[in-house]
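Private note to self, pasted from the team thread so I don't lose it. Backbone tokens:
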């Protein structure tokens, strides 16, 4: 195991609206709210659904591949450098580095993040 599932992140034009919808649908509570980043779950220290505001959001038109889905996994790790070493060995490609998060593409090109917070 490289890390622990932390959350599923869904891009959207209005995080507040979509978080409210899914909180009602799933019986979850709002555990974090920073305007363009809202997280719901059953507790703050457990995996949840995050809604990330995206200015240029285009909704998916499933199954049309020209309009793909907009979500990614967050995986919590204790050490970003060690996690990165392991996911790169599995075939991931690093796209972006930050002090508390790194963005990768899986072998099929889907984004996912390693995070420490």
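Design output:
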């Amino acid at each position: 195991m490289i890390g622990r599932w932390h959350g599923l992140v869904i891009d959207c034009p209005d995080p507040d609206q979509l978080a409210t919808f899914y909180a009602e649908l799933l019986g979850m509570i709002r555990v974090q709210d920073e305007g363009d980043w809202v997280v719901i779950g059953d507790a703050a220290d457990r995996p949840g659904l995050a809604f990330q505001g995206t200015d240029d959001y285009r909704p998916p038109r499933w199954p049309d591949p020209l309009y793909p889905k907009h979500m990614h996994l967050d995986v919590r790790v204790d050490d970003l450098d060690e996690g990165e070493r392991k996911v790169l060995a599995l075939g991931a490609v690093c796209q972006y580095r930050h002090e508390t998060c790194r963005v990768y593409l899986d072998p099929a090109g889907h984004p996912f993040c390693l995070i420490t917070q």
